[in-house]
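Because discrete structure vocabularies remain unfamiliar, we reproduce here a specimen of the format, pairing a chain with its fold in token form:
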Amino acid sequence: MTSKSRLLEDKVALITGSSRGIGRSIVECFASEGATVYANCRTDGSFDTIARELSKLHEVEVIPLYYDVTDSILTKEAFSRIMKERRRLDILVNNAGIMEDALIGMISDELMHRIFNTNVFAVINHLQLAARLMKRGKSGSIINLSSVVGIRGVAGQLVYSASKGAVATLTRSASKELASDNIRVNAIAPGIIGTDLLEVLDDSLLAKRKTSIGFGRFGTPAEIADSALFLASDLSKYITGQILGVDGGVVI
């Protein structure tokens, strides 16, 4: 359903990792609020049907952008296309990320490189390119996806936790550097969210995870999208450098 508030009317947004879960929910939310959305996915053609349906439903443009966020050349081409077609970018959501577990002593160089290339280096690359476009209009909102484990840590996820901790600190640093251009940089730190990543866990482990959450349930991708909407819209126009925990009171 299209929102009556249209908080992002006439805004141009780029959302990475849009094919499923949190990314897809953010695309749907932003489109319903009136934004023109460039939805990044890796697999060619995978988002075409969804993009057409959302465009028709909300009377906006949802445009798939197919590229791997770790490919710096293709990333630059994507931003060049946005500049050519829209002449500006108002919102960037760095959502694309990977999560892999490994105990201390079992962490390989390949795993470290893979996680940091996607979760940190690609975020920095996208942030830099977005800032160039946003500086032209002296306005913009950059939203990075961190994690509760990036703030508090968790056993078995040293590398993933480190990557999401890096996202939190780079968010704070970027917010200081870009504030003079009226570009806001914030992060969302989700707790345990009910996406397909949880499908690999058995029922007993899921039940145990749920008992660690104050609200007694897993969060939903739509609830993360609502938080992203707040940070993308003018409702948060005096907020920058913040890490917004959206975790239902989880204890880890």
Notes: DSSP finds eight helices and seven strands in the chain. Strands lie at 12-15, 36-41, 62-66, 91-94, 140-145, 183-190, 243-246. Residues 12-246 form a domain with the Rossmann fold fold (CATH 3.40.50.720). The chain has a mean pLDDT of 94.
